[in-house]
Amino acid sequence: MNKTIGILAHVDAGKTTFSEQVLYHTKSIRSRGRVDHKDSFLDNNDIEKKRGITVFSEQAIFNYKESTYYLVDTPGHADFSAEMERAIKIMDYAIVIISAVEGIQGQTEIIWELLRKHNIPTFFFINKIDRVGADVNRVLKEIKENLTKEVFFIDSTNFSDEVIEFIAEKDEKLLEVYFKDGYQEDLWISSMRKLIKKNEIFPCMSGAALQDEGIEEFLEVFDMLSYTNYDKNETFSGIIYKIRHDNSRNKITYIKALSGSLRVKEELQIEDKIEKVNELRVYNGNKFETVNEVFAGQIFGVTGLLSSKVGFGVGKLQEKANYDLVPTLKSKVLFNEKLNPKDMLNYFKTLEEEDPALNVVWHEKLKEIEVHIMGKIQLEVLKEVVKERFNVDVDFGPCEILYKETIAKETIGCGHFEPLRHYAEVHLRLEPGERNTGIVFLSECSLENLEINYQRLVQTHIFEREHRGVLTGSAITDLKITLINGRSHIKHTSGGDFREATYRALRQGIESTENILLEPYYKFKIDADIDYMGRILSDIQKLNGSFEPPKIFGNKITVVGRGPVATFMNYAMEITEITNGKGRISFKFDGYDVCHNSEAVINEIGYNKNSDMEYTSTSVFCSKGQSYLVPGNEAKEYMHC
């Protein structure tokens, strides 16, 4: 039985140490490494060893009883959450590590929400019970209050009366059996397995990974209560969860097989392309062995797939994953003027293949590269990665907020592109979309006016890049775009004509209506002594945030609220200072909303929509063999439709 298990935790909860012990006990590794000794098996990158944190998700393989396990160790630091979320998509089960001292922290709650979104059955392991201040019961209470009431504690393979009754209460038939005949071990275990798989109950155990306490017991219980049902006889399907490049810069595509099997030299469909599998690699840490065939439930590396992208389905599964954790900041890449900008762009495009959240932007006019990031630590690591991988020194400009734009009112946009021997015209209806829904495309255009292949081209050009708004030049979002009309020419329409007409129609529509500047927001949770309540609530208001009525527990308060990333991004340091280190705040991205200081931001950025020739609303017409330009505000009168 193949099982993919993910190890997740807030940074410093002991996740990598736990993984080391599991691999050691299952004889996958000969000796146990330690993060502080810089010799852990899964933190094998020099950057990870130097910093003592997991930055990249890595996989290992071990066998236990009747199953083969693919263990995925994920980053715990918030700045590398996007890497963690991509790994979640391939997990059959998750193991969430929580420190018995620190308890539930901000990243723990983010992890939990993502696991629930993707319906990943979850086990808890309360770690570091040997430390001063450890309190398993307190952490269990925190789990019930903040994550789920359906958690139950297991202290050995001989289930306590409390566990037996907890399971019986979740199943009416089991409850009848319990009252009539009492506890029957096989029946209870079978029921537990199904309830865990359906995400209805969540087991919890405890131990001390560094001291090797509770690891073997956890392994035995986990193996007994987990199962998978992969069909090796179906057509092959899988999902790409990671891309890396080896020392020779060969692209390696990491896939989780969801059904069927795949052999070397077989052809594999990725979107509309068919590519051949050159090599199949099964990785254990940074080492691999080549195999001729892989089967459902396995994770493996493939060479030869040039068009592969993270999050895309392959084979029978042709869909793209949507991720919740997105960057809210951007930064400019600074490099020596003697270096070729296009070479630098190629380096960062390679890194973007591995981490799509970087969303590398090239500003042709300024010859500048911009990257999207989760936080300042990510920039520090990125600097080291570029040096290690490409032997180039770079720096980064200050972190800036990643703004977006949308429209307030419905409008019609039209674009025409007709230089000599070219022809395309596009009419789009633009409507404000629901907040944080992105771009939605529909077509109401008659096939008599525009044949289907051209309509699909319009859709392709809407989604092939981010389009700039007119307030700050930031990406537009939350738009419902409907193709309502269009025209082609049987002789003169050629490649790229509909791209030009679509871009112009979109820009012309945006320019003709009211626009709104959006900024990213955090949802925050503050825990502190009640003595600091007045100061904290006052700060939230000053930072343009909002909050729910504070919850008071004895002499402690919890404040949950929402506020702009721009004002709250450095507030964690203030909370520490205000409360003398006793208070804490956790953040999670809570989507985009109307900017709290739009006018100031627009003035500071100083974007001039009329000088951005890459994004123009001007249409191109032709008369008597001569092309001429018509500004967007006059173009409607010249349209042919």
TrEMBL record:
Keyword match GTP-binding: yes
Domain Tr-type G: 1-230
Source organism, top-level taxon: Bacteria
CDD domains, per the entry: Tet_C, TetM_like
SMART domains: EFG_C, EFG_IV
Entry keyword set: Antibiotic resistance, GTP-binding, Nucleotide-binding, Protein biosynthesis
Pfam families named in the record: EF-G_D2, EFG_C, EFG_III, EFG_IV, GTP_EFTU
Function: Abolishes the inhibitory effect of tetracyclin on protein synthesis by a non-covalent modification of the ribosomes.
Protein name: GTP-binding protein
Source organism of the structure: Clostridium neuense
Lineage: Bacteria, Bacillati, Bacillota, Clostridia, Eubacteriales
